[in-house]
Amino acid sequence: MNTLTPREIVRELDRYIIGQDAAKKAVAVALRNRYRRAQLPDDIRDEVTPKNILMVGPTGVGKTEIARRLAKLVDAPFVKVEATKFTEVGYVGRDVESIIRDLLEASIRLVKEEHVEKVKDKAQGSTEDRLVDLIVKPVKKATNPIDILLGTKPKEPEASPEEKQQLTMKRDQVREALRRGELEHSLVEIEVEESAPRGEIPGTDMNMNDVLGSIMPRKTKLRKVEIQEARRIIEDEEEQNMIDMDAVYSEAIHRAEQDGIVFIDEIDKVAGKSAGQGPDVSREGVQRDILPIVEGSTVHTKYGPVKTDHILFIAAGAFHVAKTTDLIPELQGRFPVRVNLLPLTVQDYKRILTQPENALIRQYQALLKVDSVNLQFDESAIDALAEHAWQANENGENIGARRLHTVLEMLLSDIAFNAGGGDAPEVDLVVDANYVSSQLDGEIKQQDMKKFIL
Q1: Given a cut of 50, is residue 454 above it in pLDDT?
Q2: Three-state SS at 52
């Protein structure tokens, strides 16, 4: 996936996102430039920095989805943050450096999953051995309590060949039964680690349990669980024991630095200067705090320092009130690629309903299929739904493609409510334009009237 050409990247994005070709083209070039940079000689590679992207467009047109799909396409560490959640240094609120800490955590999860996948087969074998040990316990000879007190406990006598053979046969029988799934609901007693509540140290990303973990022993307790639950717990333990977490952290830092993508949403909400009546902790101060991270700096985390020089930053905002020129000049300069995302048309809504691989109509068809309802939409219903979504956005707040969720929920509320039941027969249901109008026309007119009520 890392060697995809820009055309191939756009083709992959087209499977999930309708329209917005300019934005797709910009992110595709940015992603390909990472591959190109990796092929450069060492002396020039560090000098080539990513060209950060600023997306301008109304809500619900695909800004976040483009960035998220891009990261998933190449298994890159990805984090989405909202600029409005951060406040200037010295004020109560989130520190902007937590963006990079969150990115590193995402990178660790990604790398850890890859390392776990490599040892999965081996961990499953060890898990099976431990389950057999829990079920087939060798018989222990009774010990005299006086011998234990005096420390004169005699050595366990060697098992006879017949006992060893019987034990081996029993273990093999249990192993076969486990593999056939016959013992999934049998109870076993296992020792598990007690989960202590997380205690964050104020002003840092450190956890009190991590600090004291090497000093104080972990508390454990005995639990009686079914074999299927015990398998999951033991397999997690085996996977943790088999992977080298230091190697995971080292690789995760490298991946975050070289492949990380940070999506900063609502950047327009921190644009503009304060009115002059006291400090404005949600605007220019936040921009100045974000600036060093975007420019390139080193953020210290509990896993080690992370350099932000080659992280790709994608900022987005509607910019209805503020303008892109209201951002401080230094921050504007760090987002050299500007793309405008277009409002959605009726034709776009029709394509969103039917074309993407995760199209909404396919999702609702799959959901209702569970309750034996074969739901179909004819062409007139698709046209009517798209028209209603467009009208609702024009008459009220324009929330873009998210309006389709509202429209479909209203349309299918009765069907979804009445469907279900273990003995329900299979039903074929075709939705047409008349049904769409009967369900939605009243709601649209009600919204129209709201404009005239003082």
Answers
A1: no
A2: coil
